Amino acid sequence: MVKLTDIPFVLPLAEWIWGTGTASNDDEVYAEKCLGQIPFISVPCLTQLITKALGVAIILGSMLNKVPIMINMVKSQSAAGISRNSLYGEAIVYANGAMYGFLLGHPFTAYGENASLLMQNVVLVALSWNFLSKTSSPVGGQEKMLAIFGLLLYFVLVLNYLPDDYRYLLMSTTWPVMLYARGSQVWETFKVKTTGNLSIVTTSMNLVGAFIRILTTLKETGDLVVLAGYLLSGALSFIMFVQYWYYLVSTPKVDKEAEASKKKKKEL
Q1: How far apart are alpha carbons 53 and 26 in whole angstroms?
Q2: How confident is the model at residue 249, as a pLDDT?
Q3: Rounded CA gap, 142 and 145, in Å?
């Protein structure tokens, strides 16, 4: 009978899920022990498997997180309802999350979505700049250069000059930035009384993702600094979720008024 460990790629995959270990500790979870229990694996092995699966699911889901907003912006050819301050702030949040996990050697499944969301956020910034350039309030060249240079300088400084003892600042400084970023979007939505180009899919994914990340963080790293960040993210995502449904009814009316105003300006 062929053992699972003899099948190519099975053992490396199992070691990625459960890690390596020895039989000297009965309570320890490791690859060969968990493989030997299949199909009736123990609760600790199953818990670790589910945690890894959820981490992978979060990363895969994050790859589409901002896509609905991109589609809305391209369809409407507008950046209406999108706060640039929120985009800039979220870029810092995602960059900090990715750098913190990378520098501390956390499993990629514990922070990988931050890298994906950062790249998508950069695309949203570019779309916002592009569509605003066709309005009476284009984004200035100074703001664009500052944003681009600032992001590049950030990576250089964090990767090369941030002392190990101060890495925790990457996450702790994320809290006020996240409050500013998400708070800016909450205020923008409240001010215009419409959901604009925001997407309930993205908002829902952020809310569910934060909840799952709380669970996976407790299991994979137990890092309280990271956990606090996800708790804050979940709370703010919940506010945006409620706000979306509250203003959804008035959105078509506001959009029609905005379109009518554009037509009047063109006629003049």
Answers
A1: 24
A2: 75
A3: 5
